[in-house]
Amino acid sequence: MNIIEFLSQPWPWYVAGPLIGLTVPILLIIGNKSFGISSNLRHICAACIPAKIPFFQYDWKKEAWNLFFVAGIIIGGFIGANFLSNPESIEVNQKLAEDLSAYGITNYQNIVPEDLFNWNALFSQRGFLLMVVGGFLVGFGTRYAGGCTSGHAIMGLSTLQWPSLIATICFMIGGFIMANLILPLILSL
Amino acid sequence: MTHQEINKPAPWWHYLKYVIVGIAFGIVFVKAEIISWFRIQEMFRLESFHMYGIIGSAVATGLISVLLIKKFNIKTLSGEEIKFHPKTFNKGQIYGGLLFGLGWAMTGACPGPLFAQIGTGATVITISLLSAIAGTWVYGYFREKLPH
Fold first, then answer.
1. CB contact at 8 A, A42 and A54
2. ipTM score assigned to the predicted complex
3. pLDDT exceeding 70 applies to what percent of chain B?
């Protein structure tokens, strides 16, 4: 097995988790930056559509590192999917696969489910809700909460910030409600 | 360093190190399937340990790193004191947190994974990203009127 084949397998949690956790000290040591991704959405608003809103009136250029960081994430996604891709389908719990097949979701080839997220689906009720409304809630909620999974769940908990613990618990509650109670209704549209 | 030098924006190549960290991060996202909608559903349906293992071990690694930085008074590469920013509680963490959770389970992505998903070639996710930017803007617009 060569190195590319080795890296192409899906990585287990105990490899991925510590690598993600290491982002915290790396960003602190290379530039005194607190790990947190969602603030880039605010910087994009401040740079492109500030509209004299006080929340977007600040020197976003001072925080430009975050925009370079997400540019790297896009490139990393490209490398992961094109040069280190796993030839097998994504393996999921049998129970999930059975439930999803009832909604016509059967394609497990890509990392983003082809049956749900594609340009045609965008103009269906189901696709519009998942992509447009879902995206809006991600952007609105994360800023309202003052951070996302990186800023609160990883950086916040790593530095023992109790407001981050509350935010993380609320992220999980929202996710449980959506996945178990609301999503079945959306998927059957 | 003079006052003027501190305020001068860093040259663009100064930021390349963050691009490199981002690339490594994006690769982990894809290879551990963190950006897969299916993995997020498994997590919220309690059908897999995978995501809990990732978040738990990431927090443990971050926590130990921060403790070591504080204990040994580790400085940045350029010799600065490492600064931590305490977070203050407001009700936004509850309301916003719940709303973000709903969106997380719908899109299968947080703000970071949205960018990685686009990188994998799922171009339609640019619409979710634009919508997330719109959501951030609407929050900024109504900020004063929202309970915090």
1. no
2. 0.96
3. 94
Six-digit token string for A68: 């370079």
A7 contacts chain B (CB < 8 A): yes
Q: pTM here? A: 0.95
Short-list A41, A10, A183, A7, CA closest to A99: A183
Instruction: Tell me the chain A residues in contact with residue B24 when contact means C-beta distances shorter than 8 Å.
Output: 19, 72, 76
* A180 contacts on B by Cβ (under 8 Å): 44-45
Distance CA B12, CA A95 (A): 49
Contact of A155 with B65, CB cutoff 8 Å: no
Helix (H, G, I), strand (E, B) or coil at B75: strand
Shortest CB distance from A32 goes to which of B49, B80, B128?
B80
Of A88 and B88, which is predicted with more confidence?
A: B88
B142 at interface of A, judged by CB pairs closer than 8 A:
no
Mean predicted lDDT score pLDDT of chain B: 94
A 81-120 residues with CB < 8 A to B: 81-82, 84-86, 90, 92-93, 95-96, 100, 108, 110-113, 116-119
Q: For residue B2, what pLDDT is reported?
A: 47
Tokens of B28: 């982990």
CB B66 within 8 A of CB A42: no
Classify residue A69 as exposed, middle or buried by CB count within 10 Å of its CB (0-12, 13-18, 19+): buried
A67-121 pLDDT per residue, tens: 999 999 999 999 999 999 888 889 999 999 999 999 999 999 999 999 999 999 9
Give every residue of chain A whose pLDDT is below 50, as ranges: none
Distance, C-alpha A130 to centroid of its chain: 14
The rounded distance, in Å, linking the Cα atoms of A167 and A178 is 17
3-state secondary structure of B81: strand
Out of B55, B59, B133, name the one closest to residue A41 (CB): B133
